[in-house]
Amino acid sequence: MTYCSTGDVKAYLGIAEATDDTLITALVTRAQAAVNRFCNRVFEATADSTRTFDASGPHIIGPTLYLDRDLCAITSIANGDGTTIASTKYVTLPRNDTPYYGIKLKTHSGVLWTYVDDWEGAISITGKWAYSLTAPADIVQATVRLAAFYYRQKDTPLQDVTAIEAGVVIRPLAWPDDVRGLLANYRRV
User: How far apart are CA 59 and CA 56, in angstroms?
Assistant: First the structure.
């Protein structure tokens, strides 16, 4: 589950030899983690995982359970009383796009968010917890670009300052502006 490959970064940098493959692979991992932290979300999921929610409290307002993370595919929902909620009994919010930010029980479904003994962590949702099944093209490009930026830093003697020599910037102080621009619309607040 990587947003880009070592080969993608090498192609971007114009590198043909395999000398730095291990380093570039590690930088891809770091760049992807940085993209996730910056945007406060994960952009790709290949496996199901389960998250639990309280059956009472701030996540539930009426028939709607508001999720604390992006969800792009639902496998199953177990209500707090142990029953499985069929997909015909709820709609996702938004209805026709991912990531989902909420699950709303249908008005005439006859189902309410409930629990038996303990409301804490009573509701379980199993699915793919991410923005989408595959990372959007902007995220792939930002990850490639950021990994390439990290790679170029290895040969730069200056690490924490911007230096201008003969009118040329040797090393920018922060991430490249184009990376921030690509990620701006994906930040989860």
Answer: 7
